[in-house]
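tool=predict chain=A
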Amino acid sequence: MLKQQQAEHDIIKAYGRIIAVCVLLLLLAVLGFRHFNGVPTLVGHSMAIEHNRFLHVLAMVRSQWMTSGRPSNLHLDWESLASNMQPNLSQASEETKASKSSEAHSESETYDSAQAQAGNVILMSSQGFPELHRVDVQGCYQLWHQLLASSTKDLIISYDADNQICRYVAQNEASISYQHSSGRVIFLEGSD
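tool=predict ok
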């Protein structure tokens, strides 16, 4: 009888441990699901932050343009920040050979090198908004680097010539659109 009670006690103890492990696994599954479900929204929040930065930089550039006597070119003083964002070109060129989107990235990297040498001079419209040096995708890359001094490697950049709009799209389809003729900036949230 004593052996049977000991065996029942051991079985109940084992079942208790199994239930505790199941509860712990369930808790970890819920926490893991919430964590990994929230990762795509971080990209959208990142674009929202970049949108906010873009607006503040545009306001600052326009203010600097007005105080400088409304010149057609404006030299921005943060090229030292832009040079800190330079990718390692030899490493980046090896990585960019692997995909189709690498062509756009290598164009951006080529621009980065030229930008560091030329200084950060932007064209200004008569209304005080930054304009593109080149009216194409490369001009949109250049404007992003000049104004925000941040990497474009995770962005898909396009240019709409009909509406004069640069569009910067993140992986989750959140986007920032800049119409250089009017200075209008539009942020669209992506799909989560």
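DSSP finds five helices and seven strands in the chain. The longest strand covers residues 156-160.
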